[in-house]
Structures are given as structure tokens and as C-alpha cells.
Amino acid sequence: xxxxxxxxxxxxxxxxxxxxxxxxxxxxxxxxxxxxxxxxxxxxxxxxxxxxxxxxxxxxxxxxxxxxxxxxxxxxxxxxxxxxxxxxxxxxxxxxxxxxxxxxxxxxxxxxxxxxxxxxxxxxxxxxxxxxxxxxxxxxxxxxxxxxxxxxxxxxxxxxxxxxxxxx
Amino acid sequence: xxxxxxxxxxxxxxxxxxxxxxxxxxxxxxxxxxxxxxxxxxxxxxxxxxxxxxxxxxxxxxxxxxxxxxxxxxxxxxxxxxxxxxxxxxxxxxxxxxxxxxxxxxxxxxxxxxxxxxxxxxxxxxxxxxxxxxxxxxxxxxxxxxxxxxxxxxxxxxxxxxxxxxxxxxxxxxxxxxxxxxxxxxxxxxxxxxxxxxxxxxxxxxxxxxxxxxxxxxxxxxxxxxxxxxxxxxxxxxxxxxxxxxxxxxxxxxxxxxxxxxxxxxxxxxxxxxxxxxxxxxxxxxxxxxxxxxxxxxxxxxxxxxxxxxxxxxxxxxxxxxxxxxxxxxxxxxxxxxxxxxxxxxxxxxxxxxxxxxxxxxxxxxxxxxxxxxxxxxxxxxxxxxxxxxxxxxxxxxxxxxxxxxxxxxxxxxxxxxxxxxxxxxxxx
Lengths: 168, 429
Known about the structure:
The complex is a heterodimer of chains A (168) and B (429).
Chain A: E1 8-13, H1 23-32, E2 39-44, H2 48-55, E3 60-67, E4 76-80, H3 100-109, E5 116-123, H4 135-156
Parallel strand pairs in A: 1-2, 1-3, 3-5
Antiparallel strand pairs in A: 4-5
Helix pairs in contact in A: 1-4, 2-3
Chain B: E1 3-8, E2 18-25, E3 28-36, H1 43-47, H2 55-60, H3 67-82, H4 88-119, H5 124-130, H6 132-153, E4 162-163, E5 166-167, H7 173-198, E6 212-215, E7 226-229, E8 234-235, H8 240-243, E9 244-247, E10 256-259, H9 269-276, H10 282-290, H11 303-324, E11 340-348, E12 351-359, E13 365-371, H12 373-388, H13 397-409, H14 415-418
Keywords (chain B): Oxidoreductase
Organism (chain B): Novosphingobium indicum
Pfam families (chain B): NiFeSe_Hases
């Protein structure tokens, strides 16, 4: 694990058994194959207090989650939450009403929010138990892997290429 | 006729989806209803036809906050059906993992869900801006509970190491040592939590509750004990259905529990405390007294202090178990399926959790019944609203609504757990 000054984390958030809610986890799984060794890439269930613990001490955090905003399925949002809260109405899935948006704001209130904190949200359309990713969400996953992979590399060393640019 | 309706469409800071409606007519509370519209879960039906040894893992999925409680009630009910008793270190490990769940669940509720009500914040985020150190303490305390569940259960949510007869793997003694160091800090933090929570401003409201909880007599109850009340009830789990019944009310996908013949009751920390104060550790008893709690407490708003006392007890008990731990010869006692009926009741963080299973001779589940604590507390929650809110009617709507929500949150309701049944009347013409 890299030290806290330069620690960078990627968290793919969601429930792997609930259709498009797995989109964030799928992005993390694919990024794991191409991310530089010093970037921690993990999947997460999204429980806010545990998320907060993961954010603590990171210099940069890239979070990917599914959302339900009413936009067409597969729509990809990118938010820089380093300075501003996530917009309301994304309809994140959480327990106790405590999910990603709350974890970010709690981290901010406690002074634990990484200096750079980027959230990618993928609009889902089916969250049924045991359902696979829908085609629009799958296409969005590939898009986010590409964009986020490049963004992480650019943030670290502008101009450097990721190890792999063709996620499988 | 003057009519005023206080309606909360979506209750915040509770687990699951529910709302409430209080109707005031001519200055009096005419009705108070807790509406639970979380879709029914059908877990009892899922269990039918599954193998007996799948019950702990299937029922753990009912709740992400209290999966250990579901696993424990399931294993005890199954062992009751199969004629098995788990003793010694394996029994102690079950108490230890339950300590972990109480610590994480109670810390979450005390600091993140309930404290904002007392301090006048919309939620934990607002509270954290002004009380950062307090919230950090709560989060670290919760983390200590998570670590117990992770070590014994394999992961912090929906543990995978619990089985009928014991565990799939028992921890080595040396694995528990680092946990003990963390728990010593947690015990100090829990003591501070008792003191801090006792300084909050509590509405002075009491009712003559019937408290129902397990009572073991020698230990504060997690897994074992007789179902008891402050009015003389003293029964085995197998007799539960002789004394309690569930009914469906239109406003709720969760069944309402009552005593047969009528009468509501309260289960959870307040009931456990009232029936088992003598079984708390000396440290927890002293902290309770210092916090101004008597041996009996009938003010549900003080349940936040009682939860803190239970967190302190759970830290103390966890340290005692770790200190005395001897590695068992085997991680589980062997089990063979047979036909039978089994009953189990354990103390989930929110209260009594009853399971009943009927098994076929090949070990397949023929029938399953699960009664979670929030189902049992629904009627009491509504009675609290009807009894207490009348004194707050002078408040503006926003403040009155807040007081109603605080009153519901006294119970730390877990609506996802309780919504498990919907009666279907099929009219085929």
C-alpha cells in the first residue's frame, strides 16, 4: 500500500446481485487489470461508514456507483465532489438512507475527504435480484473504464499510457 | 372540528421504507399509524425445500445491520430440532460475534441516527460539522464491532463462517490478541458514550410497558434464556406461539405482534435492561448508575443511554471472552439431519428474534417462521406516538414532526427485517 500522502483509491460500489447496481463493481474489476500497481482498486458494498473509513487518508479517490436519476439507461455522469456535493436526485441505493452521497459529505464535515475526489455514476434501469447487467449499463461500464483509466493516469503522470487500454 | 395531520411520507434514519401518520382532532391525538410499505420479502417461503444447514446463510440476508442475529436464531432453532447443544469455547465464540454486532449496530444508531434528534440536527452530517470528535468516536466504535464480526464471521456484513453446530473455522488464540487491544480502546470509548449520551436532553415521558426479553439468569442475554416479561411471563422459545400472535393490518407489510388475548409489548434494549440489570458486568452497572439510570427505566427516549450501556457491556464481555478463550478441539459439533421441529429466540440489537423450523427426515425445511423485533414493536411504537405526542401539540408542525420521528427512532426500527409477509386473498369469481 502506498503512503497516505500519495495513496490513490478506486472504489466500485454496489450490490453484485442486483442487476445494474453491479455496474460500479464491474468497472473496478476491469480497472484492476490495467491500473498502476500503486493504485488500490477494490469493490465495496456502499455502506457509508465503511466507505468513510476507506476514504480516510487517501490523496485521491475515484468512486463509481449506479444511480437512478430518470435519465436514459447507460447515461454516464462525472462529478468532481472535491469542492461541491453530489447533486440531489441521483437516487443512489443505500441502507438507512446512508450511501455514497452521505459518505462524501460526512468525510467533508470530518475533514477526511481526499483532496481529489471524483464520482462516476452510471444510470441503471434494472435492479432486480439476480439480474445481469443490462446492455446499456454494460456499454456504460466499458466507457467509464476507458475514461477513468485515462483520468487516473493523467492525474498521476500526464502523458503516460495505462498498461492496458482494451478492457475485456 | 379542528383537524391537524402530521404526515411523514418517508421516515429518515431508519432501516427500510416506512412512514407515519398522526391525526389530531380537537387538540387530542385521534390516531397514530406507522406505515410500513417496504415490499414483502418472502424469506419464509424461500426457506421451504432448502436444506436445514442453509438456514443461517439464507436468513442472514434478511438484514445487513443484524445478520448475526438471524444466524444465531437460525442455528439455535435448528439445533433444538436436531437435539444438539453447543457448549464451551464454541458457545463463547457465539457470544463474542454477537458482541460485535451489538457494538456496530448500537454505535451506528446512537451516533448517526438517534443523536441528531437530541442535538437538533437534520442528520449526522450536520452534526459532524459541529461535533466532529463525537462522530469520529462513534465511527471508530462501530469499526471495533465490525472487526469482531469480520474476524469470527469472515466478513463484516453477512458473515459466512457461522454453521449449525458451531463455525466452519474457529480462530486461533493469537488472532484474538490484536482484537483485544482495539477493544480496550473501544471499552473506554463506550464508557465515554454512556456519559455523553446521559447529558442529552430527554423528554420526561414514561408508560407502564410490558417488557419482553430473554432472561438467562446468570448472563446478560445474547443467545440463550427464557422468554420473560416484567409481568411474570417465563416460557421457553417452543411456547412462543402459545402466548403471542401476529396479525396483518392494512397499513403495514409487516405483521403486528401482540399477546394472545390482547396487549402490546416492548422488546429491545429497554426490555433487556429492565429484566437483566443484575446480569450486566459491574462496570456497566456502575456506568448506568452514574448516568442516572435506575435499575428500571420506562422512558423510551433514554433508550439511547441504555444502548450505550449495552455497548459498554458488549466491549467488556468481548474482552472477558477473549481473555478466557481456549481453542476448541473442533470448530463445530457434527450434525445429522432428522425429522423434527425446532425453536430459537435470541436478542438482536433491536430485540427478540424468534425462529421456528419444521424439518423433514432428510433435513429439508418443511416450514419456517421468523418473527423479527420490529414486527413486535410496531404496536408499541404507535401507542407511544398516541400517548406522548399529545403533550407536544403546541409545537409548530416541523418540530412536532421531528418529535414524532424521534419517538419512532427510540426503537431503532429495522423495517427491512420486519416486512416479510403479505396476505393474498385470491378471488377467482
